[in-house]
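Exercise 7 asks you to align residues with tokens for two separate proteins.
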Amino acid sequence: MIQVEHLTKRYGDLAAVDDVSFRVGEGEVVGFLGPNGAGKSTVMRILTSFLPATSGKVRVAGHDPFWESMQVRLNVGYLPENVPLYREMRVSEYLFHRSRLKRVPSVERKRRISEVLSRCGITEVSRRVIGQLSKGYRQRVGLADALINDPPILILDEPTVGLDPNQVRLVREMIRELGERRTVLLSTHILSEVAMICPRVMIISEGRIVAEDRTENLTHQLERSERYFVQARGPADELAALLADLPGMTSVAPDESAAAEDAHAFIVEADEGAGISSRIVGALASKDWPLVQLSERAPTLEDVFVNLTSTEDVVGHEKQAGVAEA
């Protein structure tokens, strides 16, 4: 349903997207990940006819987004990161207007509007002026707009931004359900969300695809190393330096979510077979810095993302390129 071959988008000398190729098949739900400025939103805008490509070949539902823009727009439901809405219109009026633009037959418009209002959880605000809604509700109005003509392809850029936890759960379930009979390309910074929704993941960094595989395969690649959660008492900078200098250690990163008032936490990675756990215990004992917790940590999609899109860790040691090259 989506075919991209050697896609490049340049702004002068800057290559925002650099020779990108990928395919998304019918009925696939694919996560599209990357740090800010990596090029993922640019790719999505090209796929949806909002931007022309500098070079390369793109087909969406069999159509060229540049030369056959209208056909592409009729086959794609697009939710951009910043949803453009007519804030002076009421929700139901806006969806009626959008249904006409998207050529929903007049006999089906009322039913379709009712369906998307219910599915997106905004029936109770259908008579409200869009400009008076919270950001979360406006986001859901944008999602209803993307669904109004029942398109076979959905391209969603940060669909859960601004939503509360209950709304996030609702949208996740909706995407899962929609993916059973549609092609979905999903961009988000919430990596746990991708792991729950998307069987396949693409990661883009500096305009290039650096990884593309099933989610579980990407995490398996990191299982060739030892990873531990370390929490200890002592000066934070000196703790980080001590851990980083241990033989076999390849990465040391602070875990602020687990930091305590009198202890500092780190996620560390070492070469497989380095016996890093005993080295950590011995090094801390030599400094009389109490070890609070040491536990093995299974790799996650977040670990893969950081490994592929970062060039240096916190203490300045070069990261290994093993995962990117695997």
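Second protein for Exercise 7:
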Amino acid sequence: MKKAIFGGSFDPPHLGHLEVIQQTIISLNIDKLIVVPAFLNPFKSKSYAPAELRLKWLKAMTKEMPSVSVSSYEIDQNRSVASIETVRHFKDDDEIYLIIGADNLEKLSQWKDFEALDAMVTWVVATRDNIEIPQKYISLNVNQDISATQLRKQIEEAYLDKSIAKEILDYYQK
């Protein structure tokens, strides 16, 4: 079985995340895509929306996608979880694709146990901010020029999935 794991803060989940999910299903020959919201990103000191709420939003956003499952694994740990732990949790004997945004490439070698993680996964890098993706990675073409950081500064409904837009707008406008 071939699986892909797409982790992140998803604070909030937006159309860029949705396009990564859709392009993964279209572009990669996988059996399952596991979306894993972080309890707390290991490189961040806080989240804005509570983990359970971000999990709920992601489940709503992907409910019509049978090959996608949203996992509470990292949230259930109630702490920051390194990607290698998540990959080990889901790996079994499966081939694993690990999806990241191009903005993560600069710090990738700083990830916990990077060499071991690198040996366990096939990297898939979603395009972002015109960052050049080295040929050793699979490139995933994503045409959404938005980030969760930008959205938190100025929340715009146009960048949110319709099924969760009102709830996200209400939450971040408080």
